[in-house]
Amino acid sequence: MKLARLMPLPMLTALLVTGCADPTESEAGPDVNSATTAARPSVAVSVQPAPEQRNQTDRPAVTFDPCYDVGDSTIHATGFDPKTRERGDSNLAADTYTFLGCEFEQKGSDGLTTWSMSLMATNITMPEIRKRYADTIIKEYKIENRDAVTYRLPGDSYISNCFLAMDSPAGVINMHLDIYAGRASGDACERTRSVAEIIQKDLPRS
């Protein structure tokens, strides 16, 4: 599963057009991008370390890493398979902002992927996302008192994929759900909300 399918790089760079550079992977272990590891949930699948963050502005470092901080039981509750957890391409460490992410799949009885999910934490703010996607925001929500919006990319009207951004003390959590045509059906924006209501239980409270 590649981010090129889930969230094209131009979409990420369009949020902030300055200071973009290719990501470089940290040689350190999974503690690098998290404020604490003591209470991390159970994760059976080992994933690559997150890219080293630059953040050469006053943006805070991203300390919540969905690859380590969203547990297998939570992913299972969303309907996705925690065994498909992978770092993939859901990461971008530019000079002025960061995305740390993980990717998951849901498979049918035939073993083929029916849905894919990219789950990312970023230090891009909710006001920036609202401004960037003002024309494509579908709905605004409160998810356990957290501000959230569902949106699509400009020009994309298909119900088979949808983005959701949700605020949290750890920064914005950005999710993308995509249906594999012909293998499953449904409204991705409706499902992103139900998935976010489950994912938020693993987010920091303060």
What layout of secondary structure does this protein have?
Elements: H1 3-6, H2 9-15, H3 66-69, H4 72-78, E1 81-86, E2 92-93, E3 98-107, E4 113-122, H5 126-132, E5 137-143, E6 146-151, E7 161-166, E8 172-179, H6 188-199
Antiparallel strand pairs: 1-3, 2-3, 3-4, 4-8, 5-6, 6-7, 7-8
What this model shows, in words?
It is a single chain. It is globular, with a radius of gyration of 16 Å. The protein is α+β, with helices and mostly antiparallel strands and 206 residues long. It has helices at 3-6, 9-15, 66-69, 72-78, 126-132, 188-199, and strands at residues 81-86, 92-93, 98-107, 113-122, 137-143, 146-151, 161-166, 172-179. The chain is 20% helix and 27% strand. Helix 4 (72-78) runs antiparallel to helix 6 (188-199). Strand 5 and strand 6 (146-151) form a beta hairpin.
Task: Pick out its properties.
27% strand; 8-stranded antiparallel β-sheet; alpha+beta; globular; 8 strands; 6 helices; single chain
Q: Percent of residues in helical segments?
A: 10-25%
Strand content: 25-35%
Low-pLDDT sequence parts: 1-37
Count of alpha/pi helices: 6
Rg, Cα atoms, Å: 16 Å
What is the residue-averaged pLDDT?
Answer: 81
Describe the sheet with the most strands: 8 strands, antiparallel
Q: What best-fitting shape do the alpha-carbon axes yield?
A: globular
Number of strands: 8
Order of helices and strands: HHHHEEEEHEEEEH
End-to-end distance, in Å?
Answer: 32 Å
Return the structural class.
alpha+beta
